[in-house]
Amino acid sequence: MNSAPGTPHEEAPGVRSQDVRIRVNGEDREAYVEVRTTLADVLRDEFRLTGTHLGCEHGVCGACTVLIDGRAVRSCLVFAVQLDGTDASVVTVEGLGTPEAMHPVQQAFYEAMSFQCGYCTPGFVCSTVAFLDEWRASGRPALDERDLRVALSGNLCRCTGYQSIVDGLALAVERIIGDETTTDAAITTATIITTTTE
Amino acid sequence: MKPAPFTYHRPADLDSLVATMADLGDEAKLLAGGQSLVPLLALRLASPTHLVDMSRVLDLRAVDVHEAGESADAGYLVVGANATQRDVELDLRIAARVPLLADALPLIAHPQIRNRGTVCGSIAHADPAAELPAVALALDARIVVRSARGTRRIDASDFFLSYLETALEPDDVVVAVEFPLAAPHTGAAFHEISRRHGDFAMAGVAASLTLDHDGRIVDARLALSGVASIPLRAAAAEAGLVGAAPTDEAFLAASSEATALLDPPDDIHATAAYRKHIAGVLVRRALRAAHERALAGFEQS
């Protein structure tokens, strides 16, 4: 049933380029791209959402992390066509907050100075947002420093400024607990902050 | 963008997926979660002419527990080909019903990868250092395969042939993997050692023990990852454990038996001798952890 090598599959209905329609930051966006174009490249080059950064482009560094239906995903390991026409909702760092009205995670990273050069920051912010949403959804189990470090282990910071990034996450955790529960829980998080900054 | 150009196919249902693969055969690669395939494309280690995206075949997303009964998959957890690793990891039924799978899933890469990567895709990719091929082998899982020739089941013991090579034909579609549901009083553990969290491990061990009411071992499962071109089942070590009391001496004997004939690869990450050593240590640790969990099951029942 297979054709000889080199024989074109004239009957095969596949495509090399096509329109892709994707919901990004609450808007329906569209672009005509080669099918080998990654979500990261469509976000940056077609939709001009250059907050999503590309580091390794093969799924190791996490700089290109975005949210798809609230879950953290590496946008360099997804072809844009895979999302075309689906009800998937993509959120990039631009969709989280603005300089005037930052997302609580952006605010926490800002206050904890969770960046040096800033290149990896959008990926860390998106991973942190997804982690905290899942942590809330699972009933906010107690977190220790190891949990925070594992949560961020899929993102690399080439400046190696990890301590302040973990501090930023701990600060975001503390705010959530402070906003939502009793003083006892806040004390638990204060312990996290202490252990992570030692 | 780094992958070489390809032609993209997106069949809408299982029949057209199978027909597309029958048509394209070895010029095509299936794309499910893409978390192993897309890096290979980006590095141009693979440059298939066609990519066939199976994600739109919605009925392959299901994760079902089939209790004992008449059907062919009774007594199995059936994980559909499009179910992500994270779908299964967050499924509250899995820890009790297939505890080895539940213990292994959080060790796979990072949440960002597990949110897209599929259970079946990892097994079909057959990286010998990956966790899920060892889990499938240890548990005697069955790989359910569909092609234009029909549907068949391949035992995990017949599935892994060599590095990234399996018993799949070019036009085969893995539609599900079936994991046997654990017997009562079963405890399981997956232990591995990697340089960094989420990296492929230098060695890993899948262990599962089932105890009888006197606390003796009635079933033992041991498989090793990262120490050969395929995941390895330690059948002689398992045989030595069955009928034995679960003591440190028995676990030590099992670890000697499981690693005696190992000839692991030497590479930049670890020497062969180091891999062999940590495999032995991991066998003991995983058996001890599995035993503790089996005992904890006793106390709850």
From TrEMBL, chain A:
Keywords associated with the record: 2Fe-2S, Iron, Iron-sulfur, Metal-binding, Oxidoreductase
Biased composition annotated in UniProt, kind: Basic and acidic residues: 8-20
Gene3D superfamilies, A to Z: 3.10.20.30, [2Fe-2S]-binding domain
Disordered: annotated span: 1-20
Pfam family, one: Fer2
Coiled coil: none
Keyword presence, tRNA processing: no
GO MF, one annotated term: metal ion binding
Official protein name in the record: Unannotated protein
TrEMBL record, chain B:
Keywords recorded for this protein, A-Z: FAD, Flavoprotein, Oxidoreductase
GO molecular function: FAD binding; oxidoreductase activity
UniProt cross-references to SUPFAM superfamilies, sorted A to Z: CO dehydrogenase flavoprotein C-terminal domain-like (SSF55447), FAD-binding/transporter-associated domain-like (SSF56176)
Position of the signal peptide: none
Residue ranges constituting the FAD-binding PCMH-type domain according to the UniProt record: 1-184
A Pfam entry, by short name: CO_deh_flav_C
Protein name, entry field: Unannotated protein
